């Protein structure tokens, strides 16, 4: 079964006919040629496919495209603004926060979403006082970024890069 | 030509492909969509041993958008091959559960997957045997072990020496099957045209893959092109061709259109290789002061029934420590299991877990400090070959690591450091990895606009190869790195050895240096003027590599771990991990640190989490996804640091480098296990260090 819809990705509107079984990740990669979002497991277990839907981080491999036709989507391709790279992108290069680069788009989108969550005061499992505004130190960042696996082991660089941007 | 003062080798420059990777512009194998593309969904065997008797494709072929079902009964014939794993769909035999037995091709991925699920495969099933045991009746001695080393080696009379040694450690260690699990699943886009076959693939070696693929289709290598500019990790699993590449090429040939085949994470547990489980008995005989008299290290491993992969588990033991009597052996049993293959430091990683755990047990038995014990057993020359070491700075790594870690204040008593509900302990282990080099070719070209292009069919899996080759070329050309473009990841480029065995930089760097030197000479001849058509030079290093001096070449390291073990639950956390390495000259401190830390992180993961569980009843790896096969996540990695000692070794290669891709994982698990013993008094000899192994 197919559905006609309009998808808003990185502030562009894409009119599409999609299979109702199609995931947002497959639509991005196979239909819109936005291959920045990565397929690491297709089961929501690795975080490589993380994108922002209405500013919140979601796993696009677990999201059916037909469910997000009314919400703005941001992928790694849309992180950089007109005045250049997103601060997270710059910090990731500076801190060598990746090796193979395959988890990187998901790490970046996840980090952007996570910074917004923290700014809204959302606690994590390691926040000492859930009523206070969270302070993004190393432990908080590690905890909040643990849904994004990196097999190359670039975690210390990822934490350092995010900590710099969070300051 | 521009002369510059800057020396790039040794500088921590940013990755040259960093911008592409953080913007999502870097294209990986499956991210190519040629015109008329079709999608493949493979079907895996649901029995561990037997035969495919028939295929009912009736329902599958009715799926809208369906193009074809290919199986043994209708598959194009491939040329006969010694590589049985690559003879895909050529025989009705099933050698392991999960082996590819068919593939559905459709206009969309969704349709292909639906059709694959609707295929009915009829099997005749036979009893299977999938369990590795040290007393398995079919254990045998392989002719050689990976890469081509003697299976057994005996010096002196180890049995007699062990019988009369004042102190003896005799223990059996086991390591589980482990899966590489690079973040990018293996993927192939295969396309045939008049000239031959073009393959976008995620591979550690475009030249090698071309050489494996072409003969299967009865073509010379020149008619196959492998394109692989970015590889999302490999850790050995993308070093050799696996069945999916052949399946994609075969399917594209059959349907006459390009085919995209992305291996699923679950499929990867059966068809892309893994680290064999091992059972290792280590016996150490020593004087009371810890000086070794005899070392015996005997390993049992598995391979599949269709391919012999014999891992070199005990080989590092042949050169680590001085002892007049030594035995190292390998025994293999062929089971109805998937074929194991390379995984980061095959041999050294599991082997050094056993040896370095046993050394810790010896230190305890002798009452000698574990750092001091290793220093005491330092050999003057390579115990294996008798050759001098080109350089060996294990002792420097141990001393420097001990100083940085604060080892000297360590109380050796186990189980006495309790803070709150946590037991703390520290442990040390040695690391080592051979410094190989393989023949490669490269070309260097001066463009009329003042830039340079260096070409070599190397691969960058995240190692930083593209970056360090740029640095090496810029220094040799005496040109700013911004003007040097390095093209890799394409079999149409000058042929290169694979990214494996930690030999990439040494092998490719030599070829790049020689090509750039030849270009500099060429430009000197023309008075520094680049002709309108550019100037080009090339080099091949086979002769140089063959003719190198006789030395034992190895990198060394020392790893120190601190753990906190929950006294009630057994939950173990690595609170500190510190490594010091001696690996020749470090080309790029920034990317090198990432390599060392990445290896150590995988070692931490091996120590605490990683285990592929064989389901004896059904004959496959049960926990075949990333929710059940645990790898270290961000919160698991706390305080981790890598350092290196200066090492000026003139006997290696023009850059003075040793490989650094694998040594970081070697010894880590032993350092953690030794720290767990120091924390709790419990010696865990079976990886991973699970809760149930600590709760008494």
UniProtKB/TrEMBL annotation, chain A:
Record Pfam families: Fer2, Fer2_2
Keyword Coiled coil among UniProt keywords: no
SUPFAM superfamilies from the UniProt entry: 2Fe-2S ferredoxin-like, CO dehydrogenase ISP C-domain like
Residue span(s) of domain 2Fe-2S ferredoxin-type: 3-79
Alphabetically ordered keywords of this record: 2Fe-2S, Iron, Iron-sulfur, Metal-binding, Oxidoreductase
GO MF: 2 iron, 2 sulfur cluster binding; metal ion binding; oxidoreductase activity, acting on the aldehyde or oxo group of donors
Domain of life: Bacteria
Gene3D superfamilies reported for this sequence: 3.10.20.30, [2Fe-2S]-binding domain
Pathway assigned in UniProt: Alkaloid degradation; nicotine degradation
InterPro entries named among the record's database cross-references: 2Fe-2S-bd, 2Fe-2S-bd_dom_sf, 2Fe-2S_ferredoxin-like_sf, 2Fe-2S_ferredoxin-type, 2Fe2S_fd_BS, Aldehyde_Oxdr_Iron-Sulfur, Beta-grasp_dom_sf
PANTHER family, per the entry: OXIDOREDUCTASE WITH IRON-SULFUR SUBUNIT, OXIDOREDUCTASE, IRON-SULPHUR BINDING SUBUNIT-RELATED-RELATED
Name under which the protein is recorded: (2Fe-2S)-binding protein
Organism field: Sphaerisporangium album
TrEMBL record, chain B:
Pfam families on file: Ald_Xan_dh_C (PF01315), MoCoBD_1 (PF02738), MoCoBD_2 (PF20256)
Domain Aldehyde oxidase/xanthine dehydrogenase a/b hammerhead positions: 23-127
Domain of life: Bacteria
Gene Ontology terms for molecular function: iron ion binding; oxidoreductase activity
Assigned keywords, A-Z: Molybdenum, Oxidoreductase
Gene3D superfamilies: Aldehyde oxidase/xanthine dehydrogenase, a/b hammerhead, Aldehyde oxidase/xanthine dehydrogenase, molybdopterin binding domain
SMART domains: Ald_Xan_dh_C
InterPro entries per UniProt: Ald_Oxase/Xan_DH_a/b, Ald_Oxase/Xan_DH_a/b_sf, Ald_Oxase/xanthine_DH-like, AldOxase/xan_DH_MoCoBD1, AldOxase/xan_DH_MoCoBD2, AldOxase/xan_DH_Mopterin-bd_sf
Name of the protein: Xanthine dehydrogenase family protein molybdopterin-binding subunit
Source organism per UniProt: Sphaerisporangium album
């Amino acid at each position: 079964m197919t559905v006609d819809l309009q998808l808003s990705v990185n502030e562009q509107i894409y009119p599409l006919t999609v299979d109702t079984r199609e995931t947002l990740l497959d639509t991005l990669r196979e239909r819109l040629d936005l291959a920045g979002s990565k397929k690491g497991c297709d089961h929501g277990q690795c975080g490589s496919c993380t994108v922002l839907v209405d500013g919140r981080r979601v796993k696009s491999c677990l999201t059916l495209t037909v469910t997000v036709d009314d919400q703005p989507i941001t992928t790694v391709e849309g992180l950089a603004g007109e005045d250049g790279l997103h601060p997270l992108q710059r910090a990731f290069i500076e801190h060598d926060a990746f090796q193979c680069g395959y988890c990187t788009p998901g790490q970046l989108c996840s980090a952007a979403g996570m910074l917004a969550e923290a700014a809204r005061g959302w606690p994590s499992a390691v926040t000492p006082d859930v009523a206070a505004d969270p302070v993004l130190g190393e432990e908080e960042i590690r905890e909040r970024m643990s849904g994004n696996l990196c097999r190359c082991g670039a975690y210390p660089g990822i934490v350092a890069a995010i900590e710099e941007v969070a300051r | 030509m521009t002369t510059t003062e800057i020396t790039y080798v040794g500088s921590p420059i940013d990755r040259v492909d960093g911008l592409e990777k953080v913007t999502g512009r870097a294209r990986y194998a499956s991210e190519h969509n040629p015109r008329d593309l079709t999608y493949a969904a493979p079907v895996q065997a649901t029995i561990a041993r037997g035969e495919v008797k028939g295929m009912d494709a009736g329902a599958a072929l009715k799926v809208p958008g369906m193009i074809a079902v290919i199986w043994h009964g209708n598959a194009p014939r491939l040329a006969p091959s010694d590589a049985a794993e690559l003879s895909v769909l050529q025989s009705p035999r099933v050698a392991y559960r999960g082996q590819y037995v068919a593939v559905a091709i459709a206009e969309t991925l969704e349709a292909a997957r639906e059709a694959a699920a609707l295929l009915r495969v009829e099997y005749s099933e036979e009893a299977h045997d999938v369990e590795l045991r040290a007393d398995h009746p079919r254990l045998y001695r392989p002719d050689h072990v990976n890469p081509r080393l003697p299976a057994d080696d005996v010096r002196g009379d180890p049995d007699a020496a062990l019988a009369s040694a004042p102190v003896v450690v005799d223990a059996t260690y086991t390591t589980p099957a482990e899966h590489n699990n690079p973040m990018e699943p293996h993927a192939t886009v295969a396309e045939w045209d008049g000239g031959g076959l073009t393959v976008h693939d995620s591979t550690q070696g475009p030249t090698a893959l071309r050489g494996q693929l072409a003969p299967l289709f009865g073509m010379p290598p020149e008619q196959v092109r492998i394109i692989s500019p970015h590889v999302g990790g490999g850790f050995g699993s993308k070093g050799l061709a696996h069945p999916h590449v052949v399946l994609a090429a075969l399917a594209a040939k059959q349907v006459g259109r390009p085919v995209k085949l992305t291996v699923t994470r679950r499929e990867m547990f059966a068809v892309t290789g893994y680290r064999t489980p091992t059972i290792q008995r280590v016996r150490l005989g020593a004087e009371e002061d810890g000086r070794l008299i005899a070392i015996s290290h005997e390993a049992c491993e598995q391979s599949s029934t269709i391919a012999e992969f014999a891992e070199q588990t005990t080989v590092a033991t042949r050169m680590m420590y001085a002892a007049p009597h030594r035995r190292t052996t390998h025994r293999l049993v062929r089971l109805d299991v998937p074929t194991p293959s390379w995984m980061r430091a095959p041999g050294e990683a599991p082997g050094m877990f056993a040896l370095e755990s046993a050394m810790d047990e010896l230190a305890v038995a002798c009452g000698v400090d574990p750092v001091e014990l290793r220093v005491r057993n330092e050999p003057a020359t390579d115990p294996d070959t008798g050759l001098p070491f080109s350089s060996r700075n294990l002792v420097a790594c141990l001393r420097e690591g001990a100083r940085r870690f604060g080892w000297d204040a360590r109380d050796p008593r186990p189980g006495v450091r309790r803070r709150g509900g946590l037991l703390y302990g520290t442990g040390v282990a040695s690391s080592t990895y051979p410094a190989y080099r393989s023949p490669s070719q490269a070309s260097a070209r001066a463009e009329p606009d003042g830039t340079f292009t260096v070409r070599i069919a190397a691969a960058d899996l995240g190692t930083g190869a593209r970056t360090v080759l740029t640095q090496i070329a810029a220094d040799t050309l005496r040109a700013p790195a911004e003007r040097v473009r390095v093209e890799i990841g394409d079999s149409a480029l000058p042929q290169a050895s694979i990214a494996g065995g930690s030999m990439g930089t040494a092998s490719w760097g030599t070829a790049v240096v020689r090509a750039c030197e030849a270009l500099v000479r060429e430009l000197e001849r023309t008075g520094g003027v680049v002709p309108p058509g550019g100037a080009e030079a090339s080099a091949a290093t086979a002769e140089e590599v063959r003719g190198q001096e006789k030395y034992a070449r190895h990198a060394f390291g020392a790893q120190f771990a601190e753990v906190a073990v929950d006294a009630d639950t057994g939950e173990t956390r690595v609170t500190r991990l510190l490594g010091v390495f001696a690996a020749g000259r470090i080309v790029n401190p920034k990317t090198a640190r990432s390599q060392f830390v990445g290896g150590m992180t995988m070692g931490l993961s091996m120590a605490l989490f990683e285990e592929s569980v064989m389901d004896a009843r059904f004959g496959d790896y049960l926990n075949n996804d990333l929710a059940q096969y645990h790898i270290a996540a961000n919160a698991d990695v706390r305080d981790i640091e890598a350092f290196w000692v200066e090492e000026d070794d003139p006997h290696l290669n023009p850059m003075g480098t040793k490989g650094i891709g694998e040594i970081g994982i070697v010894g880590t698990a032993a350092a953690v296990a030794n720290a767990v013993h120091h924390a709790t008094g419990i010696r865990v000899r079976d990886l991973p260090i699970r809760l149930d192994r600590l709760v008494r």
